[in-house]
Amino acid sequence: MSTLCRIQFVLIFMIIDLKPLFLHPFCILDGYAFFVLLSLHFSRVAKNVRLFGLSILSARFPDNLLHNLRIPMALYKQNVKQAADFLKENLSVIPKTAIMTGTGLGESVASSNVFAEFYYKDIPNFPISTVESHKGKLLFTNISGKPVLAMQGRFHLYEGYSPQEVTFPIRVMQELRIKNIIITNAAGGLKPEFASGDIMVINDHINLTGENPLVGPNIDEWGPRFPDMSRVYDRQLADLCTVVSGIKKISLQNGIYAGLKGPSLETPAEIKYLKKIGADAVGFSTIQEVIASVHAGFRILGLSTITNVHTPDNPVPATLEEIVDVAGKAVPKLASIISHIVGHIHE
Ligand code: HPA
């Protein structure tokens, strides 16, 4: 194919929104398919056919080949609605509160009162977690007498997921009319007074991922173009945690969570930098979901389990085994706080 021809292809593909596919190294559309798509574009059914074609292509590519591609927002919205409709059709009760758990924390949700469960792979368009310590299941369970949607396993930027994919479950929750979200994660502590196994209430965050799920056309139906971020984490829910921790004699920390993309852990110089800019804990999750949750108008509670404490002047290597182990041991504390909060949350 001549260079001129290639340039024409790129320009026209940009016009018809197929830019992401064209630019992907695994996706080579031949000239015939191109002209079929182009003529369809100008027909009355073009829009739906294009969306359908993209869905087929997405489904056909195995093993996350479409990761990191920003798909057209119309298709994204349609995928979200399909997933939400599937859940609505299969549920008798739709909860108002959701819990998103992280590394080794999947068990923090009591699994004894589950009234419905779905593997991510069985929910239309739902991403699938590639991390072993994350389960990949959506549970609908009763906690303190209230129905709750509990995500066991989430999606990370470091796995290669785009911010859109990472926040796909948040948009599904929004379509289900969820109002409150409790997001937990495992994090490295940056304050010397923190100890491994501590629970930290997130008061605020610093987004150092270089990503934002709201980049691109705004879906006004979902939220404002420029959401306010002055009060991201709900003060009342955070205060409720302090009350619970007093009642249950659980020592609770408060602090600012810095979110990085990962997956490489922090160098001692990076730890010193994070401390200097005001962070108290560091991790590789939560930020994208929280931004989408603010956009969606959710009340947000963020809880970090401090799995390791950084000592940059005397660096000690952290391992995933240790992180998962400490997170697992902190589960009863976390579960106890969460069940109390759910019991008192205003729906
Ligand atoms: N850094 C990033 N993510 C983490 C850490 C850490 O030290 N500990 C647990 N998750």
Whole-number count of domains: 2
List the bound ligands: hypoxanthine
- Distance N to C terminus: 60 Å
Oligomer: single chain
Tell me the name of the CATH class of the largest domain: Alpha Beta
Strand content: 15-25%
CATH fold name of the largest domain: Rossmann fold
Instruction: Give the full name of the CATH homologous superfamily of the largest domain.
Output: Nucleoside phosphorylase domain
How is this structure best described in words?
The chain is α/β, with parallel strands linked by helices and 347 residues long. Helix 3 packs antiparallel against helix 4 (46-60), helix 5 (73-89) crosses helix 7 (168-175) and helix 8 packs across helix 11 (320-344). It is globular. 38% of the residues lie in helices and 19% in strands. A hairpin with a 2-residue loop joins strand 3 and strand 4. The protein has two domains: 3-78, no CATH class; 90-344, Nucleoside phosphorylase domain (Rossmann fold, 3-Layer(aba) Sandwich). It is built from eleven helices and nine strands. The structure holds hypoxanthine (HPA). Hypoxanthine binds at residues 186-188, 265-266, 282-284, 307-308, 318, 323.
Compact summary:
Helix content is 38%, strand content 19%. With 347 residues, the protein is an alpha/beta fold.
